[in-house]
Amino acid sequence: MELSLLSLSWWIALCACLETQIGLIDKLESVQRRFTKRIPGFESLSYSDRLSLLDLESLELRRLRADLITTYKVIFGLLDVSSNFFAFRDNSVTRGHPYKVMLGHCDNNSQKQFLPHRIANVWNSLPATDTDFTNLTSFRARMQNINLRTVTRF
């Protein structure tokens, strides 16, 4: 199911709201943290260790993957959004993949929480050799193999 412009706007607004209130994000993550701690034998393990043993991802990591997939959809025209949603670098990129985005100027801090600014550095750092941009299914599959835990807290 593809996201409509309305649902994309809702998602961006929700994420921006949550991001500016980091306490809410931590509260959401704490639900998973408490639940995994109640599993017998997991009480003394760290949250990261519990996630690894249960083959789970943190909510922050799942959100990051969702943001990357949304970014792919916007860049490749799978979502109907304004053509100036992302500003692209010229095609003379010497390193990485050819779909790098530029960060525009932000007039206030709340703009920094919207998708283009929140995801640009992670998107631009995706390895060209491990990222398949040919279609959405391939891109999603490759996102599962790329270690994004280096840019998340958990």
Percent helix: 40-55%
For this structure, the quaternary state is: single chain
Number of beta strands: 2
Count of separate structural domains? 1
The radius of gyration computed from the alpha-carbon positions, rounded to a whole number of angstroms, is 17 Å
Shape: globular
The secondary structure category is mainly alpha
The share of residues in extended strands comes to: under 5%
- Terminal CA distance: 29 Å
Q: What is the N-to-C order of secondary-structure elements (H for helix, E for strand)?
A: HHHHEEHH
Low-pLDDT residue spans: 1-6
Q: Write out the strand line-up for the largest beta sheet, numbering strands in chain order.
A: 1-2
Largest sheet: 2 strands, antiparallel
**Residue-averaged pLDDT, rounded?**
79
Give the number of helices.
Answer: 6
